[in-house]
Amino acid sequence: MFGEEPGSTKGMEQMNDAKPPRHLSVIRHCASTARLVDSSEQDSDLRPLNLAPSLGEQHGFLPVFRSGSYSDIGPKRYMEDEHICIDDILSHLGIGTDLPAPGAFYGVFDGHGGADAASFVRSNLLNFIIQDQNFPNSVEKAMKSAFVMTDHAFADSPYLDCSSGTTVLAALIFGRWLLLALTNPPACRTMLIANAGDCRAVLGKRGRAVELSRDHKPNSKFERLRIEKLGGIVCDGYLNGQLSVSRALGDWHMKGQKGSSCPLSAEPELQETILTEEDEFLIMGCDGLWDVMSSQFAVSIVRKELMAHNDPERCSRQLVVEALKRNTCDNLTAVVVCFSPNPPPRIEIPKSGIRRSISLEGLHLLQGVLDSNI
């Protein structure tokens, strides 16, 4: 499924940095747009029979997908990040596909020990999802299975370095075609986040940051218990003293036979979200971004930028530029997905007789802390 054969020359100097050369531009960016169309706009042979009233009529909210991305090599010697932005899966797969209606797919892949794993996963993960036997009746099962199957396919490739690895963060937004499989109409605008590693997905909800993924670090309580239960150890924050993440695809020098349980897992954690009018945008970024800024700070930057120019690509670039100013130590990739064609509305704070000495960003940060402790 992955037809390109990358270069195989890796010197000892590259081994020390775990960053083999990339013959790619050090800065990459893209922007695109699509919307979740109503069934009346599709060809008649693609429409399911006896559909319920349109999504807009039922809920008054029809998501519009506009995405932008930006990557930079940062202070590293080699670029190992990959990403993908597909605002319309149906158009991306072509007319010949059996997929009966649109959806969207986004991914950030933070490679380590070489670029092979990140490149392979970027090219193949979506195909494994839609070809899974559980798709589209059980998208959650299809997503989990696709992560594992992609990992196994990478191990079987004769031309790739299976000792390279990558964290994987993917977002799949369902289209109206799920009415064929699901009885709950709001699922037509469901966003499923799948994460294996320390990339992070953050939802901008009327200016407040809502984290939709959990960083898989070996020294976190949840991951440490899982690792030790499977016979692994955590040494100075590293899994078996070698890897700073506890979940990843690839890294087959640290895994046993395919199908066996091991401390380094390729299985993602899933988070499902029903999009509403309050959900303004999604930020997906590699750990090089989150190492130097909080989720709330990133949401505040993007919202301010969108209100100024309403361009998700420029927002992604601003996040990367800000991380570079803060002296990040890694490659940088940011993806911003907007759910409306319009910029976010200005938040009006009711006037009161009490003087307030905290900023709006501080209020959102405090609210996030309180929510996490509930």
From TrEMBL:
Alphabetically ordered keywords of this record: Hydrolase, Magnesium, Manganese, Metal-binding, Protein phosphatase
MF GO annotations: metal ion binding; protein serine/threonine phosphatase activity
Cofactors named for this entry: Mn(2+); Mg(2+)
Keyword Translocase appears in the UniProt entry: no
Cellular-component GO terms for this entry: cytoplasm; nucleus
The enzyme's E.C. designation: 3.1.3.16
Reactions the enzyme catalyzes: O-phospho-L-seryl-[protein] + H2O = L-seryl-[protein] + phosphate; O-phospho-L-threonyl-[protein] + H2O = L-threonyl-[protein] + phosphate
Family annotation (Gene3D superfamilies): PPM-type phosphatase domain
Positions of the PPM-type phosphatase domain: 66-339
Region named Disordered: 1-21
Family membership noted in the UniProt record: Belongs to the PP2C family.
PANTHER family xref list: PROTEIN PHOSPHATASE 2C, PROTEIN PHOSPHATASE 2C 47-RELATED
Name of the protein: protein-serine/threonine phosphatase
Organism: Dendrobium catenatum
Organism lineage: Eukaryota, Viridiplantae, Streptophyta, Embryophyta, Tracheophyta
